[in-house]
């Protein structure tokens, strides 16, 4: 599952120096920002700047209003002018950093966050944003450290807990990530993505009931969130609720017909449930649609290959496993399964290189050893077959033990 994107956050702190308390226009501009009337705020702060062209805070707040309207050039100019007038204006550095980040200047953003932190070492928001920058650069450890510090100085910002949870999930620390998402939800009970992410963690931990509850909360907040529908279907399938799972996939497809995942997942269920009848329409059409919508989705090729093997379309199955291997060249399972198809098609000589490749990726692949042994045996190469069955048996394969005892003693 493609991971959730980290969210950049613009500083919303509105600076109000002591001298501005007597400035009616300045105070009115602050109120306009607070209620979202950004264009009116720009007009008011422009007048303030005319009256006091050395006011760093007026430039900062006008820049913030421009930022909210996505008028990036003007926002950048005002943040920069605010910094020129006061090199201690750490909020201006932070907000200029988020703007640079949004424009793709990650190095420039990182420098601004560093400066903001240097000026104010307890400024939680700058640590938060720098954590995002580090995460984007692949520095997970550094990102976690920055989120830790941000939480230390401001434990009430839900997104920091959420972002830290994402990295912990990526590192396989699901239990700790679960706690972080729970805290994010406690701080913001309407945090859609935190429910969704926590649901994903619970599903990985096979707590399907808990996952379904979180996905359901996600959908209460956003009924059109097709990822949540798709993943709730996966959780329901984990509980063997076949009808419930298919219902969720159907709804996801209804909302977003171009979404490839629910087609594949619905196809998997139909294949597993209906292959005994020999009917292929229900699942093959879904696998075909998933591949059509996303030609680089490896799982669709994998399961369509399995379905074709079941239908004895051996060449079609080999072709699909070849596509899977192209997309997932480091996974032994693709080579192994392609070898199985060739073995079942009695192409024993051709199957052996695939089992070799699987064993090169994973030397203790006991099933690959067992089937390579069978292929050797069918080619009359009993010595090689017995060697493979012996190794497979030593790795715990009972079928290999039987073959070794029956044909190699």
Describe the 3D structure.
The protein contains 23 helices and no strands. It has 409 residues and is mainly α. Among the domains are: 1-120, Tetratricopeptide repeat domain (Serine Threonine Protein Phosphatase 5, Tetratricopeptide repeat); 190-256, Serine Threonine Protein Phosphatase 5, Tetratricopeptide repeat. The radius of gyration is 29 Å and the shape is elongated.
Write the SSE topology.
Layout: H1 24-34, H2 38-51, H3 56-68, H4 72-85, H5 90-102, H6 106-119, H7 124-136, H8 140-153, H9 158-170, H10 174-187, H11 192-204, H12 208-221, H13 226-238, H14 242-255, H15 260-274, H16 281-293, H17 298-310, H18 314-327, H19 332-344, H20 348-361, H21 366-378, H22 382-394, H23 398-407
Helix pairs in contact: 1-2, 1-3, 2-3, 3-4, 4-5, 5-6, 5-7, 6-7, 7-8, 8-9, 9-10, 9-11, 10-11, 11-12, 11-13, 12-13, 13-14, 13-15, 14-15, 15-16, 15-17, 16-17, 17-18, 18-19, 19-20, 19-21, 20-21, 21-22, 22-23
Give the rounded overall mean pLDDT: 93
Percentage of residues in strands: under 5%
Distance between the termini: 48 Å
The CATH C-level name of the domain at 1-120 is Mainly Alpha
Report the C-alpha radius of gyration, rounded: 29 Å
CATH topology of the domain at 1-120: Serine Threonine Protein Phosphatase 5, Tetratricopeptide repeat
Following the backbone from N to C, one meets helices and strands in this order, namely: HHHHHHHHHHHHHHHHHHHHHHH
Count the E strands: 0
Identify the CATH architecture of the domain at 1-120. Answer: Alpha Horseshoe
**Coarse structural class:** mainly alpha
Query: How many helix segments?
Result: 23
- The stretches of 5 or more residues where confidence is low (pLDDT under 50) are 1-22
- Coarse morphology: elongated
Largest sheet: none
Relative helix content = over 70%
What do we call the CATH homologous superfamily of the domain at 1-120? Tetratricopeptide repeat domain
């Amino acid at each position: 599952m493609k991971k959730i994107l980290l969210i950049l956050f613009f500083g919303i702190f509105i600076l109000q120096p002591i001298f501005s308390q007597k400035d009616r226009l300045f105070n009115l501009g602050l109120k306009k920002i607070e209620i979202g009337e950004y264009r009116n705020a720009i007009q008011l702060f422009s007048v303030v700047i005319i009256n006091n062209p050395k006011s760093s805070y007026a430039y900062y707040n006008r820049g913030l209003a421009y930022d909210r309207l996505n008028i990036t050039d003007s926002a950048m100019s005002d943040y920069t002018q605010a910094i020129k007038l006061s090199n201690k204006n750490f909020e201006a550095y932070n907000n200029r950093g988020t703007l640079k980040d949004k424009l793709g200047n990650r190095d420039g953003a990182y420098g601004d966050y560093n400066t903001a932190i240097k000026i104010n070492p307890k400024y939680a928001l700058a640590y938060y944003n720098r954590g995002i920058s580090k995460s984007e650069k692949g520095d997970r450890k550094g990102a976690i450290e920055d989120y830790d510090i941000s939480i230390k100085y401001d434990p009430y910002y839900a997104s920091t807990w959420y972002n830290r949870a994402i990295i912990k999930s990526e590192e396989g620390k699901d239990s700790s990530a679960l706690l972080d998402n729970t805290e994010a939800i406690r701080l913001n009970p309407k945090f859609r993505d935190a429910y969704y992410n926590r649901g994903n963690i619970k599903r990985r931990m096979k707590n399907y009931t808990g996952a379904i509850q979180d996905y359901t909360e996600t959908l209460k907040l956003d009924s059109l969130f097709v990822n949540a529908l798709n993943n709730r279907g996966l959780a329901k399938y984990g509980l063997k609720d076949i009808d419930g799972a298919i219902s969720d996939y159907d709804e996801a497809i209804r909302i977003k017909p171009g979404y490839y995942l629910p087609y594949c997942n619905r196809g998997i269920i139909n294949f597993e449930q209906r292959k005994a009848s020999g009917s292929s329409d229900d699942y093959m059409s879904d696998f075909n649609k998933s591949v059509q919508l996303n030609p680089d989705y490896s799982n669709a090729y994998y399961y369509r290959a399995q379905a074709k093997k079941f239908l004895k379309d051996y060449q079609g199955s080999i072709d699909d496993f070849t596509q899977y291997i192209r997309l997932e060249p480091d996974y032994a399972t693709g080579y192994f399964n392609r070898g199985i198809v060739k073995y079942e098609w009695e192409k024993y000589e051709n199957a052996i290189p695939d089992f070799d490749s699987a064993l090169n990726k994973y030397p203790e692949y006991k099933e690959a050893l067992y089937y390579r042994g069978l292929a050797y045996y069918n080619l009359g190469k009993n010595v090689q077959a017995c060697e493979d069955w012996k190794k497979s048996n030593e790795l715990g394969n009972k079928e290999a033990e039987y073959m070794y005892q029956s044909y190699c003693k």
